[in-house]
Amino acid sequence: MVRHIVYCLLCESSQDQLPTHLLRTCMKDNTPEERHAEVERAKASQRTWAKEGRVWDFNDLSSLVKDNASCMALAKTFLERGFFVTNMPQEVLATDSARQSAATRVTPSTKRFSLLEFFKPKVEATYARLRLNDSVEKGRLNEFRRYCVSVMMLEHHKTPRAVMELTVEDWHNRTLLDGGGAVIKTTHGGAPDSLTLTNEQEAWFDCYFSRVRSVYLTTQEKPMSDKGRKCKLTVNNELF
Fold it and tell me: What are the residue ranges spanned by the domains of the chain?
């Protein structure tokens, strides 16, 4: 029997057995009727997304993201993730001057920077709420975790395996720098490695480890803790 993937709207994770997932994790204290209603809500959301949410018009993206390089990078990301982008320009028109061309040229580093900058305001808003001990919905916590991982991979050029090998012990043993930021010493593939974070990035990561990670540990099917073990940044080895 073919099982269709349906996203849990409570924790925003993909599930091929949503009723079982709700029973064991997100709605284990709810009634069968409430879980059934949530399954139907998730299925309706999935149908709506398949019908309306998978297609983007490049002209709409351009109206939301004014910078051409950022808009192109976002459109490409959508395509790589299985979305459809209509009215996509076939090429980036050359500008009249070399200065303008250099300013608008789309390079890999520009794409990485643009994507991080595009999502940064939302992450900063979540960070501010966490600092105030405000209640933050699970979807925003997911975004915050993914952004921290993306910073490591896109800005600091760490491989997925290097990200997975970062442990809480590595974080607690970090060296704080006088001018702000921190150096994390770790190992990758058995060899010494390090990661230097800016003051802003160090604050984000500290917020993740102190206020976000505990949520993931307590919502696992088998609750975990950091006591007496090396717990990795990515819960259950999941990056995204």
Answer: 6-53, 55-105, 109-237
